């Protein structure tokens, strides 16, 4: 029997493979049953790993859920760049709303309920909050600001405005309707959001 | 012994009084220890009530927490109306940010962490979500839209824009920084938010 087979026979898989399997099991639980299903107990059992291994690698089940989500989500960090910031933002925000609200390959109610669950638990789980920021929200914010800077350099956005604010007034506005659902989150809303953020609400 | 005294002697308080005491106990727990401390067990014990009573009146501990918060918060639903929408919004948003971030009479870290906890739990507690909307977010949205309508009638906001969007681009933008803290939530931010929402980001 080869050494590899022996190791396999004793159930010793390479760490990278184990980690990958744990992340996949956590993503499956998250997408099918929601954030509350992602406990160290259930993930360890589904992945055929020991709970000790999970405790060693992740500071909380929430942090594991966040990392698993971004490692295995259908979601891509794409930002179209056609040179027309209004068209690019409209395309990006419409895709974002579609992803949040429409049925996906693995998520029946769209990614929205999963993201909302992650953000929800992040409010009382600092480890999840840090993982969410590191793996998702901070890089997305940086990508958007980079696109805004290019648009400003092309003369499409005003000089002197704080570009970080625009991120909150576009994606943050969508999150507001996702998390506090007093008003509908639709593609039409995404289109109107972009126009309002670019043109302003004040009469001229 | 009078009938009232007899009832008191047996510990039977009027329902309104019991309810008030439960809400106060729930608010105290929420403000001092956060949303996770608001369980039927702990509130019943702190209020000297039976858990059965709480189950009868509130569909979940989260719903009780939301109602308690809005019944006993320092927070007022005020919206200044000086006739100048830019000044009124700036004043309102600055107060809102101050309330979220500064130490209060009863909340050491500002109301922000309490509100964030309520919105967080609302993502997996439909009863809390409904109570939050009924007691807080929907009436606030309606007040803001009413102020916007008056400003539009005065000729300060463009006709034809969806005024609900402005709510997301002002208060929703603040919630975005509260819930996903990748960028700071300050009074300067509130001022810049209002100007950006009114003037737009596009170069002219």
From TrEMBL, chains A, B:
Name the DNA-binding stretches.
39-58
Which Pfam families does the entry mention?
TetR_C_11, TetR_N
Keyword Transcription regulation present in the record's keywords: the answer is yes
Report TM segments. none
- Chain ranges of the HTH tetR-type domain: 16-76
Superkingdom of origin organism: Bacteria
- Write out the entry's keywords from A to Z: DNA-binding, Transcription, Transcription regulation
Q: What is the name of the protein in this document?
A: TetR family transcriptional regulator
Q: Which organism is it from?
A: Winogradskya humida
- Which lineage? Bacteria, Bacillati, Actinomycetota, Actinomycetes, Micromonosporales
């Amino acid at each position: 029997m080869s050494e590899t087979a022996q190791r396999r026979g004793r159930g010793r898989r390479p760490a990278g493979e184990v980690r990958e399997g744990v992340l996949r099991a956590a993503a499956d639980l998250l997408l099918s049953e929601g954030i509350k299903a992602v406990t160290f107990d259930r993930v360890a059992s589904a992945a055929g790993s020991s709970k000790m291994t999970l405790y060693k690698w992740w500071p909380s089940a929430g942090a594991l859920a966040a990392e698993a989500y971004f490692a295995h989500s259908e979601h891509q960090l794409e930002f179209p760049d056609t040179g027309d910031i209004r068209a690019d933002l409209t395309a990006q925000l419409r895709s974002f709303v579609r992803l949040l609200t429409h049925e996906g390959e693995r998520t029946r109610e769209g990614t929205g309920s999963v993201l909302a669950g992650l953000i929800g638990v992040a409010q009382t789980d600092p480890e999840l909050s840090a993982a969410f920021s590191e793996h998702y929200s901070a890089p997305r914010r940086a990508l958007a600001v980079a696109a805004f800077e290019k648009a400003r350099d092309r003369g499409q956005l005003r000089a002197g405005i704080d570009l970080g604010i625009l991120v909150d007034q576009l994606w943050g506005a969508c999150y507001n309707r996702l998390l506090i659902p007093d008003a509908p989150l639709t593609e039409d809303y995404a289109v109107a959001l972009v126009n309002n953020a670019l043109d302003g609400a004040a009469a001229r």
